[in-house]
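Please check this one:

***
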Amino acid sequence: MEMRAKVVANDRTYNWPRYPTVVICCDGSEPAYMEQALADGLMHNLKQIIAKGVDLRGKSVIPSFTNPNNLSIVTGRPPAVHGISGNYFYDKTINKEVMMNDPSFLRAPTIFEKFQRAGARIVIVTGKEKLRTLLGHGLDFSRGTAICISSEKSDESTIAGNGIEHVNDLVGMDVPDVYSLELSEFVFVAGTKLMTKVRPDLMYLSTTDFIQHKFGPGSAGANAFYAMMDRYLGELDRSGAVIVLTADHGMKDKHIGGQPDVIYLQDLLDAWYGKESSRVILPITDPYVVHHGALGSFATVYLDDKLDAELVLQRIQALPKVQIAVSGDEGCKMFDLPRDRMGDIIVVSSDSKVIGTRESEHDLSGLNEPLRSHGGLSEQTIPIILNRKLTDQPSNLHNYDAFDLGLNRAMA
């Protein structure tokens, strides 16, 4: 590849890629999934990748949800910098709870935007339409050097995307169902096809965690997913690309005896102080609630000015399996979150617990298996795997160091 000047994005400097550099965010990929699949002999390509590269563990950002982590990976910075603090938040300026899917919420450019301006070819494929406009924000698709695709349908027969037409014909797959393994497989097929067709400088592949929400490590459903992924990892590796494989968060059982283990925090606050005295926001909330019922291990609470915030905080801290309950100020410093997009209190549950609002507001009818979810510290550990050795290994690795590892530290 042609070597060019280094690129600066959000005060981090990146070398020009010597080879196509592919960062893969395997949504919800608790390290145990790949560890078990490797032990079961289902990921021969990954085994070879690790043998010639590195198999590390790092941290996701908190809350360990999809949007804040994907945007952290592609900006190289935590949410305090890029502004995406969850999938969902309370916008105090308009007094409304909204999805955080619009690029207007972004406060930092992506690495892709900066590299395209420097002349790079960019390919982004995500399984989630909610991410497509965020990941592709700032790219000029009229130049013919950027492609951004979601494997969700934009209508009944075609895939949503920018910078490319006839995606289904290229991939050779029909539009996948949103709740299926095929939604993620489409991401990998498109990635391998576009690696050959475009030979991009930077590629980002981001799957969905539908399978991980349903199936634990070592199960037949999970093993089928990781065996599928392994086939495409092999293709990408043989293409000569530098591969960085990571995740946006882990995944844990969140049930006792098969029943969701929930703190319905809004119900408790209503009973303590009245229904109009507080507002519990669950940043896991997104359009894909069938597999988690909007139940995760992170919440933020907005309080009426008349309440004694310290007293409320103490009562929440005393609840069973509340791992962290701190003021908004302290929590934002602790987790590198944007202060104006968090409430007066930040709550993280531990172990099997998840946090809900009111029990009546959660539709759990779509949970056909015992609840598995994420959002807390227990889902923060994520894999960081490269098919190259590193020149040096930074301490305190996060998933948002992925492009730094692939571009600055991976050996030839």
The first helix runs from residue 31 to 39. DSSP finds 14 helices and 22 strands in the chain.
